[in-house]
Amino acid sequence: MIGITSYGAYIPRLRLDRMAIFQGMGWFAPAIMMVAQGERSMCNWDEDAITMAVEASRDCLRGRDKSELEAFYLASTTLPFADRQNAGIVSAALNLRDDMITADHTSSQKAATTALITALESIQSGQRHNIMVTASDSRETRTAYFYEMWFGDGAAALSVGDDDVIAEYKGSYSLSMDFVDHYRGADQKYDYVWEERWTRDAGYGEIIPRVVNGLFDKLGISMDDVDRLVYPCFFKRDHRSIAAGLGATPEKLVDNMHEVCGETGAAHSFMMFISALEEAKPGDRILMCGFGQGANALYFEVTDNISKLAGRNGVAGSLANKKSTDNYLKWLKFRDLIKTEMGIRAEAPTQTATSVLWRKNKMIMGLVGGKCRECNTPQFPKADICVNPECGAFHSQEDYEFADVPAKVKTFTGDLLSVSVDPPAIYGMVQFEGGGRTVVDFTDCALDDVRVGLPVKMAFKRKGVDKERGFVNYFWKAVPVPGAAEEKDKIRFDDRVAVITGAGAGLGKAYALELAGRGAKVVVNDLGGARDGSGKGSASPADTVVDEIKALGGEAVANYDNVATPEGGENIVKTALDTFGRLDIVINNAGILRDKSFLKMEPENWKAVMDVHLNGAYHVTRPAMAAMKENGYGRIIMTTSAAGLYGNFGQTNYSAAKMALVGLMNTLKLEGQKYNIKVNTIAPIAASRLTEDVMPPELFEKSRPEFVVPMVTYLCGENCKESGAIFNSGMGYFNRVAVYTGPTVQLGDPDNPPTPEQIHENWNQINSMDGAGEMEDANTAIFALITPPAEASESAESDEQAGGDVQTVFDKMVDGFKAEAASGVDVVFQFNISGPGGGEWYCVIKDSTCTVEKGIHEKPACTIKMADGNFLAMMGGKLPAMQAFTSGKLLIEGDVMKSQLLEKLFVIG
Ligand code: NAD
Predict the structure, then answer these.
(1) Pocket-testing residue among 499, 500, 501, 507, ligand 1, by greatest number of atoms within 8 A of Cβ
(2) Mean predicted lDDT score pLDDT of the chain
(3) What are the C-alpha distances in Å from 597 to residues 368, 457, 605, 650, 658?
(4) How far apart are CA 66 and CA 902, in angstroms?
């Protein structure tokens, strides 16, 4: 059997919105409005028929051994060289072997189908077994003409052979005639077009039916034997009517792709044929025609092998990878349709020494570097000495192709000064997987798309054009992998394991689906009891959610334990560890309601609610935290409620339990800190069985749990640096809730406690929340309570430093140490001074001695963070420490109380 063995396609990423053409030139040529639908593909400034052909060919060669190719044909009417074989350039870029035949097929829109028939007949004759035919075109058009609208740029490749055939070749029929609907003189850039109606009627309308019927007669078949019919024709109406005239039902006709990319010249028959192949099933019969000075018709039947083809971009993938633009001026500039001043830098000599090009042909055209035979280190470029310092072998390099090796951005810059058609010029270093790096240009991207660490693919592009001599220089550039930047920003949970309690329904279920969808392995815990926690429980809620996750391709396991018991909590965590081997995330979500006004709140209802909400979180989180501590990573979510945060009639048990969870979080955040365990609390508002009878129906409708899920997902993510915070979330609205502490009022004195009357007198001040703030922990709060803000001293008003520099202060610190005040004191202060004069110093006080060192101490008791100016002001006695603290100029981490020793231990000022 002989036929098609593989296919590939490349459509440039840039798509020009046709309305932009109309908006730019519709005033001059209003008729172009008739074809201004959709978008046309457009080459980037560094792309042409050659570069697109290389990409389509690489796509076609995926999963195939390119060394088996015995011939390569390139079909195009827009080849950059009239006398330098263009197929040879593509072949060099693909690093194909040189003992093969390469040829350009050109001068007609049907060049590709002619080349394909030639290739197939050569296989049929048994002379060759494996040939690739690539068609590519990027036709130039004058502005404000129909061609500008109709045409698109693109390339498509088909390989043919006698093994692994995906579409069997059944035969062909050709017509050759000197029908001139348009032509392009040898020294012309643009097509000259004859009258449109004549082209439609005498051209497409007569020649396509004739070639199709000729094929039918030759093969003894009819339209009943055709499942898909392919022929290019940019006249949409005629495209349809010719098919109808041939007896083809509309579904048989393959779309001419006008809306999505436009007609890609000599490549278009292949392009449409490949889009038919992408949808084809074994047994489908496809008839493809090429049109131009006559026509070719070829007939294929799809085989079972189609399903075995390696993944590729093809037409569908190329169409999906797009960047639409309505910048018509950019199109004009890229196509050299407007002249811009390129500056003096653009006048640098561009002549290419073809002798050098030949000597370095593999390196420049094929991106071939070297790999050391001794130590296997790859390097680019290839050199006489191995780059590996531990090897350093001489003449040990074998050819090593880098073009398909995955690479990442190592460094990059956006340069507005270098000459570029599309500034800024972006270039930098790429690092290849397995070794080797090189400096390259980045293309097909904006500066924002490039980031260190992002994956890139190498692509063969124009490096520059020597207009004086008509020479195009090519080299490889790096293209950021489409979507990689967005993917990097995505919150993912791959390799993370999450326990979600009460995940059989409501919010818990929504969290479970989302986390699993983002890669987490999830333990779906649910007891399956009634809303008030009564009943025997049931496995089905948890099982249903697990089934749902698995059906979506996720990983999950069900657990039916009761969070209200210590054994239940242990078991839930054990399920995670036994099934998935670790635990990273816990969402304490299980909940019940037993609402009664306080006087009717019997102990049993009080206790049941405490057991599920508060004790449940304790039972699960304790063993979970032990596992997280092992990994040095954890994310814990508590679920509180507006009822607890603000109060709600009839929910004393629930309010107390929910607010107790905030207390649990407040301390856990401190205990988890050094293990990178973040603990936060969600106060959700969501439609569920808990709220169905308390929420007004209109609110219930709008409050899908999915609106709370993003916040919880974020808080569970690696990027979340927050710990100890509470967030109200519902219906897409979010805000933070915090415990605030007002300013301190000091009454009485150390010997005389204040009187209640004094409290009364100062009530407004004591009760005031003006200038209130949050406190890190209890110590900070007590410290703030007992250190009321001092009156701001005149000189400390400004942050101006009090003379000297920070280093000098630390140098003098030992002199100012009051040894007599340090008896029994054993403390390490770490100073982190920001600003130009800043740095890290630490001060160790032990056995009544003081040492001061530059750097970071491993275990400071207390870390003092200040700006350099404030620090100098404080140490110069101009800014009281208390005032610095209460005004936020002095931040203290660790044991806040210890910081009070500073003033006691040192003569400051
Ligand atoms: P829900 O009733 O739909 O889901 C709670 C789930 O927890 C149920 O599937 C239930 O079977 C399970 N569960 C109950 N007791 C359990 C136990 N002992 N062990 C294991 N599983 C148990 O309710 P929901 O609205 O999704 O509530 C989820 C959480 O959010 C609860 O903690 C609730 O208090 C809290 N909350 C909800 C809202 C809201 O507007 N829905 C508001 C504030 C707080």
Answers:
(1) 507
(2) 93
(3) 80, 66, 11, 4, 17
(4) 75
Express each pLDDT in 300-346 by its tens digit. Answer: 999 999 999 999 999 999 999 999 999 999 999 999 999 999 888 88
Q: Give the angle subtended at the CA of 243 by the CAs of 238 and 245, to the nearest 5°.
A: 90
Going by DSSP bridges, is the β-strand pair 3-10/167-176 parallel, antiparallel, or unpaired? antiparallel
CA distance to 53, 74, 241, 277, 690, per residue, from 262 (Å): 17, 21, 19, 19, 56
Catalytic hit among 7, 511, 654, 842: 654
174 - beta bridge partners?
296
For residue 184, pLDDT over 60 is answered with yes
754: cis peptide before it, omega within 30°? no
Residues 232, 225: contact at Cβ < 8 Å? no
Contacts of residue 674, defined as CB under 8 A and 6 or more positions apart, other chains included, come to none
**β-strand pairing of 634-639 with 585-587:** parallel
For residue 563 and ligand 1, the question of a CB distance below 6 A is answered with yes
Stated pTM of the model:
0.68
* Active site (annotated) includes residue 654: yes
CB atoms within 10 A of CB 375: 15
Distance CA 18, CA 151 (A): 11
Burial of residue 767 (CB within 10 Å: 0-12, 13-18, 19+) is: exposed
Write the CB contacts of 63 (distance below 8 Å, at least 6 apart in sequence).
Answer: 6, 309, 310, 311, 312
Dist. CA 281–CA 600, nearest whole Å: 70
What percent of the chain is modeled with pLDDT above 90?
A: 80
Is the separation of the CB atoms in 232 and 268 below 8 Å?
A: yes
* DSSP annotation of 292: S
Report CA-CA distances (Å) from 793 to 374, 759, 878: 73, 28, 7
- How far apart CA 172 and CA 288 sit, in angstroms, is 9
Is 644 near ligand 1, meaning CB less than 6 Å away? no
